[in-house]
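Title: Prediction job returns without error message
Component: structure pipeline
Severity: low
Priority: P3
Assignee: unassigned

Description:
Job completed but the reporter wants confirmation the result is attached to the right record. Sequence as submitted:
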Amino acid sequence: MASTSDIRNGMCIEMNNDTFIVVEFQHVKPGKGNAFVRTKVKSLTNGKVLETNIPAGHKVKDVRVERRKFQFLYTDELGYHFMNTETYDQTFIKGEMIENPHLLKEGTEVDILFHAENETALTLEMPQYIILKITYTEPGMRGDTATNTLKPAKVETGAEVRVPLFISEGDLIKVDTKTGAYMERVKQ
């Protein structure tokens, strides 16, 4: 058990028979009344984000988690298959547990959070950015750069990303894995 003074970003806690990760927290001492901790927590089972207030000094059940490095191998009807980079053990994860799974490229290293007591996968964290190759896009019009217009482009994973007009087939681009948005062109 942990106290409210131990709450930190990234800490996993158990509330209402569910496991949550702390996204944001703030210790609040109002002029009138008791102090409390305002938290924003994300469920690791269904992804819902909740805002809750925990009274100061209240005990919360912290969950011990282990972060392990895995490499993405392939996907099939069971889910997405990963290999532990240290022990070479393989595991698979359902697509619902992955944020933007269409951006996963074979060989990408990810972090998987495991519940330390019952060895179940809780969530998967992709790297912040991933570099992908453009496989198809329409050619841009010359001189049409006065506005910040974007065009659709298919990348090597099959995902569609909106890119600027100067991007052409064969270019490498950096994509934000949280939003799926184009960041910049990468020199080859």
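Comment from assignee: result matches the submitted record. The domain at 65-125 is CATH 2.40.50.140 (OB fold (Dihydrolipoamide Acetyltransferase, E2P)).
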